[in-house]
Amino acid sequence: MKDGKNVSEIQIDDQKIIENKELSIWEALIPVFALIGMLAYNVFVFGDDALSGSNQFILILGGAVAAIVGFRNKISYKQMIDEVAENIKTTASAILILLMVGALAGTWLISGVIPSMIYYGLQILNPTIFLAASLIICAVISIATGSSWTTSATVGIALIGIGDALGISAGMTAGAVLSGAYFGDKMSPMSDTTNLAPAMAGGELFAHIKYMAYTTIPTILVTLIFFIILGFVIDTTGTADTSQMLVDIKKSFHISPWLFLVPAIVIFLIVKKTPPLVALLAGTLLGAVFALVFQPHVVAQIAGVESLTFNSAYKGIMNAITVKTSVATENTALADLFTAGGMSKMMGTIWLILCAMVFGGVMDAIGALARISSALLNLFDSVFGLFASTVFTCIGLNFTASDQYLAIVVPGKMYAKAYRDKGLAPENLSRTLEDAGTVTSVLIPWNTCGAYQSGVLGVSVLDYAAFAMFNWLSPFMTLIFAAFNIKIKQLVKK
Fold it and tell me: So where are the chain's domains?
């Protein structure tokens, strides 16, 4: 039992929802407004470096503000800490998956799986279908790497140069690059945002990806058709010369179609509903085996030796799985793409999740999330209203807090109970967080994503925003599905 006669617990699908009848809506919103204000100032000061740790500490400070509100309403310190511990407990599976995703990315790099995807993808370029091909290439690479930032900073830069040689507007090329990159970022199980959204909503990774496909596939198809038509309308000159990049890829890796067996097996396991950790572990181990078979020279390089022995092979594989590793290349455009962070790369996202759970746990303990959710349900009585509110909150946080992660974390914790109260499965919330939070961040010049992509590609946000159709169409698509009650999954009571 909790202390205080006005505090009660409601058990819903193994999750405690704490209500505090004495807490007013304005008291419940104080920590939210404080958090948004502190995050906005922090991003203003640190810019892209805000995710290096200062944003995480701001989340803890937000939890401290919530705790002060809780103390004023007779909520004990022990209650708040206990709820934080419960929140962190619910993220255990997501944290383990994140670590395994980092491991998989490492072995898929040194095995040549990711370089092979890039190699074969670059060969489909043609002036007329250049924009559509750019979208497809970036989508494939982003799914393989789980990173829109890496995709744009490597192949994206190369495609901007090729487009320029063809006489194609840099804004058009950047729009195609980012549309493909963010499609892959959303749909890849190796993406941090794809793991973060279901963790915040209380869902499961592969269920989230499957459910997200309902809105994401139509959006990317409309975007693809747009770029195909645009390719036939615009005038192009010159040819797409990727020969040097292809040569440099083959210098560093042994490229073979057989390497696609690794992702094919993982996809098969996912389709067969294998537990995510098992599928990712299998993909990691297969990547390690294929690295030893197809890329022994790369494994030797990672291990820092000239010839492989059992011990050096073990060292090279373990380095790829656990820490940052780079494969040597003479092509500076490929250097970032030939780098993987291993499990250690995921620690920043895990850190963010843990700090978000501190804020969310205290907000839960003092009854603030229940109070806000109740007010939202009264304000937006319909299911469509709840989806619309989530979309506008995510976009609003991308504008104010200037960071896509926070546009997922804060609404995820705020709206989880409201969706459960409406009888909606967590996949509805996690999908909306990605449709509105992840992809719109790149359309805002002062957002960390907008600033990064603009700087990397050398194209202003205003120049590419209109052509990044996938990014601005995604929130509209999720609202259309909500308005017509298409694929709105109901909560299954246990």
Answer: 7-89+347-483, 94-345
